[in-house]
Automatic annotation (TrEMBL):
Coiled coil: none annotated. Belongs to the ABC transporter superfamily. It comes from Paracoccus caeni. The keyword Lyase does not apply. Signal peptide: none annotated. Residues 14-228 form the ABC transporter domain. GO terms for molecular function: ATP binding; ATP hydrolysis activity. PANTHER family: ALIPHATIC SULFONATES IMPORT ATP-BINDING PROTEIN SSUB (PTHR42788:SF17), TAURINE IMPORT ATP-BINDING PROTEIN-RELATED (PTHR42788). It holds the Pfam family ABC_tran. Keywords: ATP-binding, Cell membrane, Membrane, Nucleotide-binding, Translocase, Transport. It comes from the Bacteria. This is ABC transporter ATP-binding protein.
Amino acid sequence: MAPHTVAVNPNPVVRTQDLYRGFNGRTILSGLDLHIQRGEFVALLGRSGSGKSTFLKALAELDHEVEGSGTLDVPENRSVVFQDARLLPWRNVLQNVTLGLAGANDAGRRMLREVGLAGRENSWPVELSGGEQQRVALARSLVRDPDLLLADEPFGALDALTRIKMHALLRQLCARHQPAVLLVTHDVDEAITLADRILVLEEGSFIEDLQVDLPEPRDHGDPRFGQLRRHLLSRLGVAAH
Ligand SMILES: Nc1ncnc2c1ncn2[C@@H]1O[C@H](COP(=O)(O)OP(=O)(O)OP(=O)(O)O)[C@@H](O)[C@H]1O
C-alpha cells in the first residue's frame, strides 16, 4: 500500500486548493488540497462530524449557507446521490430517471437495464424496495453521463445483502462510464471494496491519502484487506479485533 502520489495530469476533474469551510466562525475544512482524476474512485472516511458531507456539498456547490474560501474547480456535469433516493413520487421510474432531459427515453431505458430494472419503467417509486429505489437514483445520476459522481452514504439505509449487490453494481457502472467518484461513507469495508484511493478527514485535514492496490473483485479474506482495514480503523480511532 503506497502513499498516494498524484499522476501528472494537467486536467484533473476535481481540483481544490486551500479550501476552507466553516459555520458560525468554527472551521470545519481547513485548507484542503485535492485533485481527482477522470475515472478515479475516491472514498472519503472520517469520524462523525469531521466534515465529510461539508466537503461533498462544497464539490456539489450545494453549500450556499457556509462560510468559506479557497479555489474549487469542479465540472458542470456532475451528479449527486444521497442516502435516500429522493425520487418524485408522482413520476414513474422512467420519468424519474430522465427528469429534465428531453428525448432521453431510450437512454433512460438502457440505463434502467444496466441497473437491473428492465421492465420496471412504468412502476411508481412507492412500488419499489429501498434497494430498487437506490438503483433508480443511480440510473438517474449516470444517464447524464456525469464527469463527477458525488455519493453521500448512498447505501447507508440498505440491508447488508442489498448493499453487497449495490457495491458490485456501482463498481461495474463506474468502470463502464468512467466518472470521477467521491463516495462519502462510514463503512471502512465499503471504502476498501470500492475505491481506488481512500482519504481520511480529521479536524479539517486529510490525515490519510492511500492508494488501494488490491486486485478486483476485492476479497475480504485477503490478508492485505484485513491489514488495510486495521490501519484505517486505527486512524478513525477504533480498535479493530
Ligand atoms: N448548516 C450547518 N450549520 C452549522 N453547523 C453545521 C452545518 N452543517 C454542518 N455543520 C457542522 O459541521 C460539522 C461537520 O458536519 P458534516 O455533516 O460535514 O460532518 P460528517 O463528517 O458528514 O458527519 P456524519 O458522518 O455524522 O454525517 C459538524 O460539527 C456539524 O454540526
